[in-house]
Amino acid sequence: MEWTCSECEQRVPDTLFDTDERMCHECLDQSNCDHDNKVYQPSEPENKVPEDYNCEDCGKSFEIPDEEVDYER
Ligand SMILES: [Zn+2]
Ligand SMILES: [Zn+2]
After folding, report:
1. What is the rounded CA–CA span in Å between residue 12 and residue 24?
2. How confident is the model at residue 64, as a pLDDT?
3. What distance in angstroms lies between residue 13's CA and the mean position of ligand 2's atoms?
4. What residue ranges do the domains of the chain occupy?
5. Which of 36, 37, 38, 30 is nearest to 5 (CA)?
6. C-alpha 1 to ligand 2 mean position (Å)
């Protein structure tokens, strides 16, 4: 049996699924995370590293802020 995660809408087998939360384990981890350790990765074309902004703890990607990230907030 497969479920569709309410968060990422990925189809996941029920062994990877928390039926109470209706979220896959990946999204559950992300929803339980405060995302306190978001890191901005500036693009490095010479190293083929794309610009990215994500949480170090759970790996969730966030929209890249227009301005430089303000770590004081
Ligand atoms: Zn999910
Ligand atoms: Zn996080």
Report:
1. 7
2. 87
3. 23
4. 1-32, 36-67
5. 30
6. 29
Closest ligand to residue 55's CA: 2
Alpha-carbon 5 to chain mean position: 14
Q: What is the pLDDT of residue 68?
A: 60
Q: For residue 54, how far is its CA from the centre of ligand 2 (angstroms)?
A: 8
Using the mean position of ligand 1's atoms as its centre, give its distance from the Cα of residue 37 in Å.
21
Tens of pLDDT, residues 7-59: 889 888 877 666 677 888 888 889 899 999 999 999 999 999 999 999 999 99
Position of tokens 């209706």? 22
